[in-house]
Design brief:
CATH topology of the largest domain in chain A: Rossmann fold
CATH superfamily of chain B: Thiamin diphosphate (ThDP)-binding fold, Pyr/PP domains
Strand content of chain B: 15-25%
Number of helices of chain B: 11
Radius of gyration of chain A: 20 Å
Order of helices and strands of chain A: EEHEHEHEHEHEHEHEEEHEEHEEHEHEH
Largest sheet of chain A: 7 strands, mixed
CATH architecture of the largest domain in chain A: 3-Layer(aba) Sandwich
Distance between the termini of chain A: 48 Å
Number of strands of chain B: 9
Helix content of chain A: 40-55%
Structural class of chain A: alpha/beta
Number of helices of chain A: 12
CATH class of chain B: Alpha Beta
CATH topology of chain B: Rossmann fold
Strand content of chain A: 15-25%
Order of helices and strands of chain B: HEHEHEHHEEEHHEHEHHEH
Structural class of chain B: alpha/beta
Largest interface: A-B, 39 and 34 residues
Strand order of the largest sheet of chain B: 2-1-3-4-8-7-9
Number of domains of chain B: 1
Number of domains of chain A: 2
Helix content of chain B: 25-40%
Oligomer: heterodimer
Number of strands of chain A: 17
């Protein structure tokens, strides 16, 4: 049961995420300026304090992410946000949080790279997001919203999942999602549990044994055991796999695209469908864990595949892994630095359909 | 005459064998911290932020809620902890490589925000755990594995004087440098730690104590020689003293 507020508001995706975090009971926000996510710290600097929480503009992305580590070690819902170059700096803390099993939420409003790149939309951080990103054998749970409403909803979900699995969760957006204004219907979850971290949070060891959050395991066999435990957890996360399936049943070709690009591709598919051609869409919402099973099932039905990404080809590797025993996927790249429209995808989809 | 027990290990100090080298000061400093927490009545409210270096194992010796910070990030982690739990007592325990080199940004900004936390800074002029490399606090002329000819000002600059630097920030409530090489110094160190901790309890701001400390193994000295080096070589470069004390200024 959730409470639906009647009012719709007209906000940027960035603000939708910030509002979603507040609705999810986020009590601490730690950030650092970088385009195109500045609306999040700017909004939070007032709103989270008004809600009785804490805002710190940290000295660096590194420090901001480590502040999240500290706050979540106390069992408090906490987050940071950034964009690609800043996310690279957060990888240290993400690896430590994964190793120490601390549930931070991190937003990446991806911009073009490598290096300083540009400030426009891109999906160039897919590998970094879905392969862990920092050092060591770990994964984040990664959610890729395609609209303001989904950004709001998935931010609430991100906090729930982070605490459910005691694992960092990333919201993987881009400059399109962050900067575009659209109406959203905010809602407040009514299932927040103030004791969700009661058996592991740090709050002073009064009347109990001291607790310890660490990622150092030097004794023989200890680290192997910890890594096995983490892998079992990542396996269990598969229960959270989520995707949007659009007109796939009778489709001859499946377009696979995530985030903003998935949403743009959906418009293209609607247009192509009006000409009678059978095209469908799978838009992964969790990009880790990846919705491999549905792709495999569709491949077994003899469908063709086209992966479209706003990068030089990253998620296409996950598509190919999913369908590798049956077929292959074509790939279309729209280059970072460009803002694709639905028309841009028409020709590559038709070409792949006929090819 | 019957024997009377006049001193015992404080409960917050774990009853276990130490991994620290013979003559290392970490054990003494751990005990001073534990005694201060007991005297101030905050043991059950304390959250300790461990750091990277030999003292990463502080959780093995102090029975406290503890989180391990990445290298140099303890002041950022402490900020997160204190912001999340303002009613808890929060301190970091850091070495000189951790605090004065890789963690310089974190310590400066934590102090400059006036975070209501305490920092125990153990300066032994060398990276201990990794095997004796040059630290930002290594003395001019001191040999280390990455400056085998001795630290030279032209190539490697001068030792960083953290207690003075932190004391120079307007938001710092207390900053002092102490040593534990003699009973006299130890008594002063005990007072300094208590004072820095009291600042947090009184919510007057950031408290910082630098403790000059030995590393006999990496200095290639006996414990006695190492202990003597503090007064002979370290104190001339790192003078003992209080560089900021808002509790006095307020009076």
């Amino acid at each position: 049961m959730t409470e639906q507020t009647p009012k719709r508001i007209f906000v940027k995706g960035n603000e939708a995420i910030a509002r979603g975090a507040l609705a999810a009971g986020c009590k601490c926000y730690f950030g650092y300026p970088i385009t195109p996510q500045n609306d999040i710290p700017e909004f939070m600097s007032q709103a989270i304090r008004d809600a009785g929480g804490q805002f710190v503009q940290a000295e660096s992305e590194i420090a901001a992410a480590n502040m999240v580590l500290g706050a979540t070690a106390c069992g408090i819902r906490a987050m940071t946000s950034s964009s690609s170059p800043g996310i690279s700096l957060k990888q240290e803390a993400l690896s430590y949080m994964a190793g120490s099993e601390l549930p931070g939420v991190v937003v990446n409003m991806v911009r073009g790279g490598p290096g300083l790149g540009d400030i426009g939309p891109s999906q160039g951080d897919y590998f970094q997001s879905t392969r862990g990103g920092g050092h060591g054998d770990y994964r984040l749970l990664v959610l890729a919203p395609a609209s303001g409403q989904e950004a709001y909803d998935l931010t609430i979900k991100a906090f729930d999942l982070a605490f459910k699995y005691r694992n960092p969760v990333m919201i993987l957006g881009d400059a399109i999602l962050g900067q575009m204004k659209e109406p959203i219907a905010p809602w407040i979850p009514d299932n927040l549990d103030p004791d969700e971290a009661a058996d592991w949070r740090l709050d002073g060891a009064k009347g109990r044994q001291p607790r310890l959050h660490k990622s150092l395991f030097l004794q023989e066999g200890e680290l192997a055991q910890q890594n096995r435990h983490l892998q079992e957890k990542y396996e269990a996360m598969k229960a959270e796999i989520d995707y949007e399936s659009f007109m796939v049943e009778d489709a001859d070709i499946i377009v696979v695209a995530f985030g903003s690009i998935g949403r743009i591709a959906k418009s293209t598919i609607r247009k192509i469908r009006s000409t009678g051609k059978k095209v469908g869409l799978i838009r992964p919402i969790t990009v880790y864990p990846y919705p491999s099973e549905i792709l495999k099932t569709l491949a077994e039905q003899g469908k063709k595949f086209l992966t479209i990404e706003h990068n030089m080809g990253q998620m296409v590797e996950d598509v190919r892994l999913a369908i590798r025993t049956i077929t292959d996927s074509d790939f279309y790249s729209c280059l970072p630095g460009n803002l694709p429209t639905p028309d841009d995808f028409e020709e590559p989809i038709l070409k792949a359909l006929e090819g | 005459m019957e024997e009377e027990l006049v001193y015992t290990r404080p409960d917050v100090v774990a009853d276990r064998a130490t991994h620290y080298c013979p003559g290392c000061h970490h054990g003494i400093i751990h005990k001073l911290v534990a005694e201060a927490l007991i005297d101030l009545g905050v043991v059950e409210k304390t959250i300790c932020i461990g750091s990277i270096g030999c003292s990463v194992f502080i959780y093995n010796y102090l029975n406290l809620d503890t989180v391990e910070a990445p290298h140099g990030r303890a002041p950022a982690v402490a900020t997160g902890v204190k912001r999340a739990r303002p009613d808890n007592f929060v301190f970091t325990y850091q070495g000189d490589g951790d605090l004065a080199s890789i963690g310089l940004a974190e310590i400066m900004h934590c102090a400059n925000r006036g975070e209501n936390v305490s920092v125990v800074f153990v300066n032994n002029t060398v990276y201990g755990m990794t095997g004796g490399q040059m630290a930002p606090t290594t003395l001019i002329g001191q040999q280390a594995t990455t400056c085998p000819a001795g630290r030279c000002e032209e190539l490697e600059g001068l030792p960083l004087k953290m207690a003075e630097i932190i004391g120079g920030l307007g938001t710092t409530a207390y900053s002092a440098r102490v040593a534990v090489d003699s009973i006299k110094h130890l008594m002063a160190a005990k007072k300094a730690i208590r004072k820095a901790f009291q600042c947090q309890i009184d919510k007057t701001g950031f408290g910082f104590v630098e403790l000059l400390s030995t590393c006999p193994t990496n200095w290639k000295m006996t414990p006695v020689q190492a202990n003597e080096r503090i007064a002979k070589e370290m104190i001339p470069t790192f003078p003992l003293g209080t560089f900021k004390d808002k509790t006095v200024e307020a009076k």
